[in-house]
Design a protein that fits this description.
The complex is a heterodimer. Chain A is mainly α. Chain A has 14 helices and four strands. Helix content of chain B is 34%, strand content 27%. Classes of the chains: A mainly alpha, B alpha/beta. At the A-B interface, helix 1 and helix 8 of A face helix 2 of B.
């Protein structure tokens, strides 16, 4: 059959698959999918913050003169910028009584106004009594505050101007760090999406095999058209999903990050080129892995067989992803170049490069290289699909099945 | 068969699955505009044979041509196919399923949708149009798939066990649809193991047994493979007339049954009268396709299993 007929038939199948998927309720779930980990993450942060608030340490009671307490408080305030996330231990003033020992015991036993420890003895012989250890946070912070208060008494702070701040938009260190982070996020996004969608493609094929629709298709159009139609329908579905996520993400970034997307760390090739490259490398990666999965799916007739067969491929993908992640932070290293050359890891390695190094021509070369491999793998997987999906072609015993008696 | 052009032809088709031969040398010729039944016991290889003819699977050896093309997929737009195991997308509305099947066979989607509505309307099924396939009964879904087989107005229709799962009314409707298609010049091939349908509809049959085509020709030729059966009741219990009966004659109840001798009915009748049989009733029953099928397929099965045919054993 001539190529245009194969393409026409592939389009008919792709259109059906695309509309059936995009207009289904499960696609809504697919679109909402990224919200679950985000919501979970935010929930965990919220719970963490709540736990942190609830777990705030009780103060240390300071039995001293008012002047001494004021010096300690002043010292604490001077030191407080050093303790950013966790506040320095709080101090509470207590007026001295005649019987210091019983006052100390009473303060430590008071459930109504609990204290973690009692500091007394002034600056001459400071003494900390309570649930503290010598290397614990409370005792270290109290020591620091007492030392600072002593130093302030001996050498009052000079009247001087605060350190003048000259903020710059970027430094080379920050830029390199943020770019490598962008590269890693891009790689992870590419990998998760590819595996997720290739898995969806596979389960759709199995469903069709079990509902016998595949026979109706195979009688009407070339097997290659079924293969290409299914592959490209899922690609179109995923690009639709990505477009919607990107739109939602852009709206969220616009609202949450000052300066919108320009407020995010800029990838080396710039945002427009980086987003375009993500879409193109995703398409390449999906076609390479999706075609492999379809070839596998053609052999299997049940979901269980698919799981058994796709496990080694998924594991291999994890290894490739690990291999490609070596390229992050070292885009010109031999590992990075090797990962860019190996076809299955190439999209992952190159997206990291796009985040870290400017220059478009290496991407053009990589895309030509990957496209050539897409053509080769499509051809091989298509032949396997053709041979296996309806037991067509020369009969061949499946390697995992026993020889007939 | 005369000079009619050939719609489908197969020559020595063989198909092996995992080293086992499912089809072992099927040859057949289907004239254009005919209704041909592919008959055979369960597991005879009918479906595999049809799938090879349609190009769904490739034969291990042998050749086939469909509407003059060696690669059946090249004429897929002119062929309609109803598979044995019906397959439709459960969530798809019926009209959309029909339109999809038309589009698969080369119709532009707009035209396909128009014809889908037209087909459902012409059969009084407008209310099915928007209903998802999963909400239709098995018979309704089967009707939708059958309409999908003809939506693109094919020249050749191949139906694999089309009567399976249909009630008597729908079987009648399907028979009429097949006759209408044939009257419009469409070649119809259908497989079945229910001989009555073939006998009512077909002018030609191909009998497949044990993966081989053991008979191909007109229905009358198949019947002609068996001699007519004589049913005879006489007043006389014995006498010289008994010499006119063949050795294989059997008495069942009060009636003699035997194959009509090759010399025909007249010499038999004369011998019975001359031998003073006292004929009470005599009838000659022409064998049906069912008997012919059992005899032909049974012989092939017995041959394959290394046994003598059952009838000979009985004789």
């Amino acid at each position: 059959m001539k190529l245009p007929e194969t393409i026409r038939a592939a389009f008919v199948i792709a259109r059906r698959d695309f509309t059936a998927t995009v207009l289904s309720k499960t696609f809504l779930l697919f679109l909402l999918g990224p919200l679950f980990p985000l919501a979970l993450g935010m929930g965990m942060v919220g719970i963490g913050a709540q736990v942190d608030r609830n777990a705030k340490e009780p103060p240390v009671a300071v039995i001293s003169t008012v002047q001494d307490f004021q010096r300690l408080q002043a010292a604490r305030e001077r030191l407080s910028p050093l303790a950013d996330a966790t506040q320095l231990v709080e101090l509470r003033y207590v007026k001295p009584e005649a019987d210091l020992a019983s006052q100390r015991t009473r303060l430590l036993d008071d459930d109504g106004n609990p204290v973690i420890a009692v500091l007394d003895g002034g600056f001459g012989h400071p003494k900390l009594t309570g649930a503290v250890t010598s290397r614990g946070r409370t005792s270290r912070e109290v020591n620091l505050i007492v030392d600072e208060a002593r130093r302030m008494a001996v050498q009052p702070p000079m009247l001087s101007l605060p350190v003048e701040l000259v903020p710059t938009t970027d430094t080379s260190g920050l830029k390199a760090f943020s770019r490598s982070m962008t590269g890693r996020i891009g790689q992870a996004l590419l990998f998760v999406l590819t595996i997720l969608l290739a898995g969806m493609l596979l389960s759709q094929l199995i469903e069709e095999k079990s509902s016998k629709v595949i026979e109706v298709l195979a009688a009407a159009v070339p097997i290659d058209a079924i293969f290409l139609g299914k592959l490209f329908a899922m690609l179109a579905t995923s690009l639709t999903g990505i477009a919607m996520w990107a739109l939602a993400g852009a709206i969220a970034v616009g609202g949450l990050v000052s300066g919108g997307i320009s407020g995010l760390p800029q990838p080396a090739v710039g945002w427009p080129a980086f987003i375009s490259l993500i879409l193109i490398y995703f398409s390449m990666s999906y076609l390479l892995i999706g075609a492999t999965f379809l070839g596998i799916g053609a052999h299997a007739s049940t979901a269980r067989e698919v799981q058994i067969l796709s496990m080694p491929v998924t594991m291999a993908q994890l290894v490739l992803f690990g291999f490609a992640s070596l390229a992050v932070g070292r885009p010109n290293s031999s590992e990075a170049i090797a990962a860019a050359i190996f076809p299955l890891s190439s999209p992952f390695a190159m997206i990291a490069r796009a985040a870290e190094l400017p220059g478009i021509w290496p991407h053009l070369v990589a895309l030509v290289w990957q496209a050539a491999w897409v053509a080769v793998i499509l051809r091989i997987a298509g032949a396997v699909f053709r041979r296996s999906v309806l037991k067509s072609g020369k009969s061949r015993r499946r390697w995992w099945k026993r020889k007939p008696a | 068969m005369g000079e009619r052009p050939i719609a489908a032809r197969a020559s020595d088709l063989v198909k092996e699955f995992d080293g086992k031969r499912a089809v072992d040398g099927v040859s057949l010729t289907i004239p254009e505009g005919s209704i041909t039944g592919i008959l055979g016991p369960n597991g005879a290889g009918k479906t595999t044979c049809l799938r090879m003819m349609l190009g769904i699977i490739d034969p291990s050896s042998g050749t086939r041509s469909l509407l003059g093309h060696d690669r059946p997929i090249e004429v897929a737009h002119q062929v309609g196919y109803l598979p044995e195991e019906r397959g439709l997308y459960p969530a798809m509305p019926a009209a959309e399923a029909l339109a999809f099947m038309g589009a698969l066979r080369g119709l532009p989607i707009k035209e396909s949708r128009r014809r889908a509505k037209e087909l459902l309307h012409s059969r009084g099924h407008d209310d099915w149009a928007k209903r998802p396939i999963r909400t239709l009964s098995k018979g309704m879904a089967q009707t939708v798939q059958l309409l999908g087989t003809i939506i693109h107005r094919p020249k050749l229709i191949v139906l694999d066990e089309p009567f399976a799962g249909l009630d008597a009314i729908n079987q009648g409707k399907l028979e009429q649809l097949i006759r209408d298609q044939a009257a419009a010049g469409v070649t119809v091939i259908f497989s079945t193991h229910v001989i009555a349908h073939a006998e009512r509809l077909c002018e030609r049959v191909v009998i497949i047994a044990e993966g081989q085509s053991v008979f191909e020709g007109a229905v009358d030729d198949a019947r002609g493979r068996l001699r007519p059966i004589v049913h005879l009741r006489t007043r006389a219990e014995d006498g010289p007339w008994r010499a006119a009966l063949p050795a294989s004659a059997q008495k069942v109840g009060g009636e003699w049954r035997f194959e009509l001798p090759a010399s025909g009915p007249e010499p038999l009748l004369k011998a019975l009268i001359d031998g003073k049989a006292g004929i009470e009733t005599l009838s000659i029953e022409r064998p049906g396709l069912h008997d012919a099928f059992i005899a032909i397929a049974g012989e092939a099965v017995a041959r394959e299993m290394g046994h003598a045919p059952q009838q000979e054993e009985m004789a």
